[in-house]
Structures are given as C-alpha cells and as structure tokens.
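Sample entry (145 residues):
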Amino acid sequence: MRTDRGYLNYENIIKLIKKDCIVFKLPHYSSSIYWFNNDNELINNEDKTLLITEFIQNELQHIKNLDELSDIKIHDFVADNYKKHQLYHGRYYPTYFIFHYIAQKILYKLDINIKIQPQPNTYIVKSSRLDDITLSNKKLLELQF
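Predicted structure, serialized as tokens:
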C-alpha cells in the first residue's frame, strides 16, 4: 500500500497478479484507541471528558484516513463496536473481530452469500503476549468488555 516499503507496495504487487484476479486493497489498520494513558494531562485538565472525547475522535479519524486507501471500510464498524469488543491487542494488532468483519465484507463483495458466525475463543479475544488495556483506561473509555 505504501511507497516506502521498497518492492512490497501496491504498484509492484499489482503487476504480478493475473489480470482476471479480483484485487482488494486493505491497509494495515492500526489504532491506539484503548491506550489513552496520558495521566499527567488528565490530572492537569479540568475537562477530562472533552480530552478523552478528542482522543477517541482522533483515533477514529485515523481509521477513516486508512479507509480512504481501502476497498473495505471499517470506520463505522470500529466506531460502533470499540466499546463492546476489544478490537485491538496493541496499536498494530487488530483482533479477531476486525478480521471477521473484513472477511464478511470480502465475501459480500465476491457475491458469496454466506454469513460466518463469529466464534471468538479465549485465545483470540485475549492474548497475554500483547499489551493489556489498563483498568483506568477501561473506566475512562467506558469499555463494556
């Protein structure tokens, strides 16, 4: 997708794909939406709600910017679900929920009318190898998981 990846960018890869293939462009969807941890800024700010709201809006705008590069848009899904399900294990690691959503959208675009039922398990939903969301961030962001 990006031009700073040497040979591994869209323009070079698309040249190698057979002409009759269906191609979907998907950026690496990253987000820090669960890692609002600027405690100093919170302590020194009277309107914590506004600060947190601005942080969330900036993260959602980041997703919207990535959507501009993508054939599968996820902004609305993230905005509607980030409080219900953990969508990221860390800034660079989307969880099962995002991959499931993208897979379902790809099937739809391929005109394959199959509804894949989400089946997250403990390993998929929670991985001890990656960043945990702090309890304070869960409370500040009003997360439901």
